[in-house]
Amino acid sequence: MNSISKSILIKEVENKSDLKKFIKFQFSLYKDNPYFVPPLIHDELATFNKNTNPAFKDGDAKLFLAYRDGEIVGRIAGILSNPLNRKNNTKNLRFGWIEMIDDYEVAKSLFEAVENWGKQLGMNVLTGPHGFNDFDPQGMLVEGFDKTATIASYYHHPYYHKILEKYGFVKEVDYIEFWSTVPKDKAVPEKMVNAAKWVSEKYNFKLLKYDSVKDYVKRGREIFKLIEESFSENYGTVPLTEEQIEYYTKKYIGYINKDLIKIVVNEKDEMIGFIITMTSLSLALQKAKGHLFPFGFYHILKALKTYKILDFYFGGVKKEYRDKGVDLIMAVDIVKSAIELNFSNAESNQELEENSKVQAQWKFFNPVMHKRRRIYRKEIA
Question: N or C: which end of the chain has fewer CB within 10 A?
């Protein structure tokens, strides 16, 4: 399906060769940009492979490339999530993986291609940037263009959001990210330690301390089940199938550090809270330049053992145990681990701007809000 608008050719990605061009376009667009963190090409190929990504079993995606004079000048993905629309009783089409040169007509042509597909599907609203679900990067950078991206997010040029707003997109929700300093010069406040101990004894909660990563891996499915429950009420969350839980467990389990994951269980050994953190891989992926081999794997393995920046990824508490101090128990222990492992800084990754409870946990790290990402919305005409 090809279309032409003012010398711009919009071509749908139809084969592996096109997909590789779709993925690699960002590498040239951000060449020599110190804040861009390239994804692994292998992972991106798997994400859009209908045989490997379970999201395609109850959804679809169309990828488009924009050409001008034979050169790629933009890309975009349209994403249909049937589970999301059933959950919210909506006719929503998502867009994601948006990249383009600083040219309004290029963006306009890309969005028109996605909107036309949305019309064919009977959709009435377009939102994004999203992925297939919360485990894909989401949100467009609107503040913090001089900050390095984490592996859970994308960097965007400062002109992106201006082009979207010119096209008619408006703010749906914002995510904010915090940069913090680990309090090396002092231990965790005794008041916090005592409060966490009191909560544990009162409710018979236990912070798991396994000696091996394999023991945490065994509870991987429980973690993902609790992730889904914890985030189910948040904006834009997509219900996961058992197959997707298995898919993501295998995908991310290799990055686990037993000292950087915190799990709290009740007296029945049922998981009621968790925090997943890991050492930053941003610099390693910049050095890898999209490839695991020949040297990318080495850079990643080295980064996993280099404790400098602590990235927070997911955290949640089972609904019936909220406001009982579970988060305090985990916060105290992650601060202890950050101090013991000599981390200098920590980064929160994305949190909804109105999520004051999560943000309150950062007060012990001297937080500074340094990035803002936005989900945009536009009615499909």
Answer: C
